[in-house]
Design goal:
two-stranded parallel ribbon; single chain; Rossmann fold; 7 helices
């Protein structure tokens, strides 16, 4: 079976706060030929882990690396890499993922009122600016 994993399945597989759902999620993911994980789902996972479960960025990064390293997982590796770089430097995963996805659509500059995101993206070698 080739599946697209929803946020709740990914979170259950990680946090194990609902043991039966966690077991079912892990079994379904492991048994799938392909697990497609979209950028919106990954952004939601990171947000839920940070805000809801208060997992520190290093723990989230470790989870993401383990997840994308699985033999059957398909993700946008460039977006995940930039999202992880942003998370590791104190920013938001979603800003990195959005910036990367935008470049894939032809965007050259990440435009945001979030000055921190713009600065962190610049430190990663990506163009960004605040509207003025």
């Amino acid at each position: 079976m080739r599946v697209t994993a929803d946020t709740n399945v990914l979170v259950r597989a990680l946090v194990d706060d609902e043991p039966e759902q966690a077991r079912l999620a892990r079994e379904a993911l492991a048994a799938s030929e392909l697990v497609a994980i979209t950028l919106p789902a990954l952004c939601e996972v990171v947000w839920v882990l940070r805000r809801g479960y208060r997992i520190p960025p290093a723990g989230i990064v470790a989870f993401l690396r383990r997840l994308i390293g699985a033999r059957n997982v398909a993700v946008d590796h460039g977006a995940v890499a930039l999202g992880i770089a942003m998370l590791e430097s104190g920013g938001d995963f979603a800003d990195g993922a959005v910036a990367w996805a935008g470049t894939q659509l032809g965007g050259e500059t990440f435009l945001s009122f979030d000055r921190t995101a713009v600065a962190l993206l610049a430190a990663q070698g990506h163009g960004g600016r605040v509207p003025q």
